């Protein structure tokens, strides 16, 4: 890194090489910026809890949380909970995409369909997530089914809505071009509407999964006997603040990892590949 | 025998907010014999795009009839290839996939699609760009893809609505000559909309002039300039100079100005 700063500006460096270096440097510094508040928080925690002699019933020490973490990793129990939660998110999200995208496309194509469902959709968005937990447990019982339903619910409404908007943003001339080249309804769906709405769909997916992640924790607290949310809540009964804090950290970190390494790159890549649309459309 | 016959075409638009009716196309009739290159010109807003969109099947006419090879038009179809002013390329498809799209829709197998696409790519001078995406191309190259995409399906008619309007003047001249060169090889029937008088004369066998709204055919002029044409020859051709003056006068454009 330092060598680059010292390089005389006139020295030839290939364009792509320079861009790559700049990108790597930008990425490192953004990662550093991203982590810095957490570092400060952990440092404060390490210093303040012993210094103020906080009772472990109120807030755990860094060391005790670390101990719970390492034992959870070695005996595998932490992974079991993480996996249980991720599997539910995966199932609910998969279902929501499978049903939400086609439905959203239909809403985008047909004014009639969107006119009919729009009020319902808007009404449901306000409720999406934990408000459904009571009904979900009544319908599907206490268990994975209810939690998956909550995740599904959160992702579904976000995806339907953004898919619809994405379809509506496809330019008229693009639709006309496809039709005049002989694309029937089925082909239009696969070749035009789906890829045309893709950047918007991915944005909706990212947003929906944010809701879903929160809904998941709440649903697990109420409806199941496994997963991060359940473990978090169970610990409260035994005043295990170290477990509570570890679960909270795990929930937050998992979301950050998922968002940063799965959803954000996915969104960036689709939008980049499609970036042309803005130029082509002018 | 005329391939396309437009008779008493009439188009009334209703304003979406005021619900006022406005007659864009009053009464337009013309025929295009097979293999002819026809330009449609006229003042802005006179309904050139409207006529083209009706022929393409994108909009339904309020009145009159449009027959292609003796059959009424009932929607868009691959027998009429459309080249758009904004190119309308699929941004998520490579140059080759864009060009092969029509063949894919027709169920042509992959190997044959590739072969035909390569052929057309060669024809429009895009060799080496097969794997590029539209946003990686210049405006001129994008419109080459637009033209190639239509040529690949060998339509009976090509419809072009100001295809070169958003391309810089120099590239436009090159593309006009290129399209003529290709046209001379394949001889599709062409309906070409433009507001550029020079372009209309240079490209066409016939120029049809529409009057201002509500439009009717104001003039229908044969262009007796021999083909193959190049810009340097055409500029010096006395017929070009004469027809240009005539058309400029008709459109009410000042003659000492170069047609825009
Ligand atoms: N969908 C529509 N709804 C209402 N009015 C329309 C619609 N499309 C076109 N018009 C009106 O019809 C008239 C003719 O439009 P059209 O686009 O066919 O003209 P044009 O000759 O192609 O013009 P230009 O040279 O500017 O491209 C214009 O006054 C336009 O405002
Ligand atoms: Mg127009």
Automatic annotation (TrEMBL), chain A:
- Source organism superkingdom: Bacteria
Q: List the membrane topology term(s).
A: Multi-pass membrane protein
Q: Is Cell membrane there in the keyword field?
A: yes
Chief place of localization: membrane
Indicate the transmembrane segments per the record.
28-52, 86-108, 120-140, 146-167, 211-232, 244-263
State one Pfam family annotation. Answer: BPD_transp_1
- Compartments reported by the entry: Cell membrane
Q: What's a GO cellular component annotated to this UniProt protein?
A: plasma membrane
Record's keyword terms, sorted:
Cell membrane, Membrane, Transmembrane, Transmembrane helix, Transport
**Domain ABC transmembrane type-1, chain residue ranges per copy:** 82-262
Q: Biological process GO annotation list?
A: transmembrane transport
- Family under the similarity heading: Belongs to the binding-protein-dependent transport system permease family.
The identity of this protein, by name, is: NitT/TauT family transport system permease protein/taurine transport system permease protein
From TrEMBL, chain B:
Q: Which UniProt keywords apply?
A: ATP-binding, Nucleotide-binding, Transport
Keyword Ribonucleoprotein in record: no
Q: Which residues form the ABC transporter domain?
A: 4-237
Q: Does the keyword Nucleotide-binding apply?
A: yes
Recorded hits in InterPro entries, A to Z, give: AAA+_ATPase, ABC_transporter-like_ATP-bd, ABC_transporter-like_CS, ABC_transporter_ATP-bind, P-loop_NTPase
The UniProt GO MF terms for this protein read: ATP binding; ATP hydrolysis activity
List the CDD domains hit by this protein, alphabetically.
ABC_NrtD_SsuB_transporters
What protein is this chain from? NitT/TauT family transport system ATP-binding protein
């Amino acid at each position: 890194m330092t060598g680059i700063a010292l390089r005389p500006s006139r020295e030839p460096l290939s364009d792509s090489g320079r861009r790559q270096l700049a990108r790597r440097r930008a990425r490192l510094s953004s990662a550093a910026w991203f982590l810095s508040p957490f570092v400060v928080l952990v440092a404060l925690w390490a210093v303040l809890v012993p210094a103020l002699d906080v009772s472990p019933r109120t807030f755990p020490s860094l060391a005790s949380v670390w101990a719970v973490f390492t034992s959870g990793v070695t005996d595998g129990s932490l992974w079991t909970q993480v996996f249980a939660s991720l599997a539910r998110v995966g199932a609910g999200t998969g279902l929501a995409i499978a049903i939400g995208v086609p439905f959203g496309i239909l809403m985008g194509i047909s004014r009639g369909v969107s006119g009919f469902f729009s009020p319902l959709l808007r009404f449901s968005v306000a409720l999406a997530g934990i408000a459904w937990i009571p009904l979900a447990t009544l319908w599907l019982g206490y268990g994975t089914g209810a939690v998956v339903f909550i995740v599904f619910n959160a992702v579904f409404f976000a995806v339907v809505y953004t898919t619809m908007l994405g379809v509506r943003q496809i330019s008229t001339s693009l639709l006309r071009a496809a039709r005049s080249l002989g694309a029937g309804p089925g082909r239009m769906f696969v070749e035009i509407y789906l890829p045309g709405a893709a950047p918007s769909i991915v944005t909706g997916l990212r947003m929906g999964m944010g809701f879903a992640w929160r809904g998941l924790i709440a649903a697990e607290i109420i409806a199941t006997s496994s997963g991060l949310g359940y473990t978090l809540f169970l610990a409260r009964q035994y005043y295990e603040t170290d477990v509570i804090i570890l679960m909270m950290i795990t929930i937050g970190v998992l979301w950050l990892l998922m968002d940063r390494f799965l959803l954000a790159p996915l969104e960036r890549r689709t939008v980049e590949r499609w970036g042309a649309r803005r130029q082509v459309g002018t | 025998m005329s391939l396309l016959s437009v008779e008493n075409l009439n188009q009334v638009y209703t304003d979406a907010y005021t619900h006022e009716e406005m007659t864009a196309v009053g009464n337009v009739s013309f025929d295009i014999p097979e293999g002819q290159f026809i330009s449609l010109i006229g003042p802005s807003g006179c309904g050139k795009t409207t006529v083209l969109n009706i022929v393409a099947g994108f909009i339904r006419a309020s009145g009159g009839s449009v027959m292609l090879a003796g059959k009424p038009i009932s929607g868009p179809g691959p027998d009429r290839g459309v080249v758009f002013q904004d190119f309308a390329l699929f941004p998520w498809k490579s140059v080759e996939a864009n060009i092969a799209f029509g063949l894919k829709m027709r169920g042509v197998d992959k190997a044959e699609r590739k072969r035909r696409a390569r052929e057309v790519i060669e024809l429009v001078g895009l060799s080496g760009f097969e794997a590029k995406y539209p946003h990686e191309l210049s405006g001129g190259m994008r419109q080459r893809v637009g033209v190639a995409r239509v040529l690949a399906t060998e339509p009976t008619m090509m419809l072009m609505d100001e295809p070169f309007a958003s391309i810089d003047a120099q590239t436009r001249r090159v593309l006009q000559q290129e399209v003529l060169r290709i046209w001379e090889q394949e001889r599709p029937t062409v309906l070409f909309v433009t507001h550029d008088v020079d372009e209309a004369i240079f490209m066409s066998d016939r120029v049809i002039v529409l009057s201002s709204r509500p439009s009717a055919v104001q003039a229908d002029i044969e262009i007796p300039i021999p083909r193959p044409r190049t810009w340097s020859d055409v500029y010096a051709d006395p017929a070009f100079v004469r027809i240009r003056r005539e058309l400029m006068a008709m459109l009410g454009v000042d003659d000492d100005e170069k047609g825009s």
